[in-house]
Design a protein that fits this description.
- The protein is of the alpha/beta class.
- It contains seven helices and eight strands, in the order ααββαβαβαβαβαββ.
- Helix 2 runs antiparallel to helix 3 and helix 5 packs across helix 6.
- The relative contact order is 0.14.
Length: 205
Amino acid sequence: MVTLPEFPRLGADLGEARARLAALPAPPAELTFLDVLQANAARQPDKIAVSVLHSTVPGGPSTDMTYSALTAEVLRAAALFRAMGARPDAPVLFLGIPTLEGLIAFWGAQVAGAVSPVNPFLSTDAIADIARSSGARILFTAGPTVSEACWERARGLQSLVFDAAQVVVDGGDDSRSFARMRAATPPLDPATFTELRHGLNRYDS
């Protein structure tokens, strides 16, 4: 596990902050998202890592998750996607929005092998072409209660590229619910990685 340097905190004198940043050592050449996440979970496990606001009102309600909890959920998501067949040459097609579940899915797909985010406002045929050319085996989509635009495209893709067993949904409580599927999956053990470089993972057989 990597050790992250102490970065200047917000509110510090600008000149001092710049000097401290300039003095920081260069990050390891092979530093990955998972390295950073685990390092923060080890150093400050109870600190809020993600805060998703419920509205645009400043100081309004939000859904928060600590570094410790986020790391566990990302590894659980990675295990789910890997079990479904995600690999660098078979990414998760991401047709979601940045809800808390969407963020966990996106980062979990990165750790599992690869993620291919697409714009839901492209035509269904254009998204289907992206899915085929990328070799995507899994579709993660926001459900109808989360994003009607994403769900409309996902319904079309199910008849063109993906079958129902390959679809994971943000929202709802049926068998394809991402939250339900993830909760039933043990977290991926990072020790199973033999190589994790620049977003491309290789695994022990």
